[in-house]
Design brief:
alpha+beta, Thrombin, subunit H, six-stranded antiparallel barrel, 4 helices, 16 strands, about 10% helix, Peptidase_S1_PA, signal
Length: about 300
C-alpha cells in the first residue's frame, strides 16, 4: 500500500502543482516540472459532475453487492514510472492475466516507450502487479496515436489475478444509441466529489451515437457518450447490460478540452468538443484479446 500511495502521489499531484495532461487526445501523460494553470473540473457534459464512489452510487445504478465486488476485483489503476510517469484506468479482459486499456499510457508524447508499468485492482488490499510490456504486447499499432482508433493496448500481467472474473463481451449485440452505460475509472483528476483512491469511481451515462465502421476483424468500433472525463480517465471500463447481464462494452480513450472552463457543464455537442469517445471491446480488440489469451500476440 505504501508503494501505491507513493506512485499515486507522483502520478496524481494536487491541482495546484505543475502537470501537463493531454486534452482532446487522451489524458494519461503527467510531466512534473512544467508550468500549467490551475486545473478546471471539466470536460463535464450536460450539467454537473455525476461521478462518485462506486460504493456510494453503485446501488442506484442497479448494481448488486456481488457486481460491485466483481468490478473492484477486475478494474483499477494502470501506469508506468519510467522514463516519465503516466497513469490511467484499466480492466481485466477475457482472462485474469491480461488487461485492456488505452495505449497512450505506455508511450511518451515523443513516441518513446515507457517501462516499469503496473496494474493495481481496487479490491480490498488489491495487489500491485507488474505488467509484461514486450514484443507480445498488443498495441493498436506500432505507434498508436492518442485518442485514435488504434489507441488501445492488451497487456499481460506477470501472474494471474487470483479469483478475479473479467466481464464478458457481447459482440453479437451491437452498441446502440441510447444504451445506458456504467463507466468505471480508477481515480480521475479534479473530480468535484472527494473519493477515496482505493475505491473505483463510477458514473451512469449513455451512448449518444454508436459508430460501427468495422468491415472486418482488422477494424475497431467506437461510440460517442455523454460520460464525464478528466485526466487519468483513459482506459476506463464501459459496462452495459445485455439481457440483464453486465458486459464489457469498451474503454474511454478521449474527451474534449477538459481544462477549458467553457466546457464545464456544457451540453453534449460533438462538433463543439463536449463529447467523450470510447473504443468498442469487440471487432479487432476482441480478436487481439482472444489471440493473446490463446498464447499469441
Amino acid at each position: 500500500m505504501r508503494i501505491l500511495t507513493f506512485c499515486l502521489a507522483l502520478l496524481l499531484p494536487a491541482a495546484s502543482q505543475a502537470m501537463d495532461l493531454s486534452t482532446r487526445i487522451g489524458f494519461a501523460d503527467l510531466q512534473p516540472g512544467r508550468s500549467a494553470p490551475l486545473l478546471q473540473r471539466v470536460n463535464i457534459i450536460d450539467g454537473t459532475d455525476d461521478r462518485d464512489s462506486l460504493l456510494k452510487i453503485g446501488p442506484s445504478l442497479g448494481l448488486s453487492r456481488s457486481e460491485i465486488s466483481r468490478i473492484r476485483s477486475v478494474s483499477g489503476y494502470v501506469g508506468c514510472l519510467s522514463p516519465s510517469p503516466s497513469v490511467g484506468s484499466a480492466a481485466l479482459f477475457l482472462t485474469n492475466q491480461q488487461i485492456l486499456t488505452a495505449a497512450h499510457v505506455f508511450f511518451e508524447p515523443s513516441g518513446k516507450r515507457r517501462w516499469k508499468c503496473f496494474f493495481r485492482p481496487q479490491s480490498v488490499d488489491g495487489p500491485m502487479i507488474d505488467l509484461i510490456v514486450d514484443d507480445r504486447t498488443h498495441f493498436g499499432s506500432k505507434k498508436p496515436k492518442a485518442g485514435s482508433n488504434n489507441d488501445y493496448a492488451i497487456v499481460r500481467l506477470v501472474e494471474p489475478l487470483a479469483g478475479a472474473v473479467p466481464f464478458p463481451v457481447a459482440p453479437d449485440v451491437p452498441v446502440q444509441n441510447g444504451d445506458k452505460l456504467i463507466v468505471i475509472t480508477a481515480h480521475p483528476a479534479e473530480m468535484e466529489k472527494d473519493v477515496d483512491r482505493d475505491i473505483p469511481v463510477a458514473q451512469g451515462c449513455q451512448v449518444r451515437r454508436a459508430i460501427n465502421k468495422s468491415r472486418s476483424a482488422a477494424a475497431t468500433s467506437f461510440f460517442r457518450t455523454d460520460c464525464d472525463a478528466t485526466g487519468a480517465s483513459s482506459g476506463g471500463m464501459n459496462l452495459s447490460r445485455v439481457n440483464g447481464q453486465l458486459v464489457f462494452r469498451g474503454i474511454t480513450i478521449t474527451t474534449g478540452p477538459w481544462r477549458d472552463p467553457r466546457y464545464k457543464g456544457a451540453p453534449y455537442n460533438e462538433k463543439g468538443g463536449s463529447v467523450t469517445t470510447a473504443l468498442g471491446a469487440d471487432a479487432a480488440i476482441l480478436a487481439a484479446g482472444r489471440a493473446m489469451a490463446a498464447g499469441g500476440s
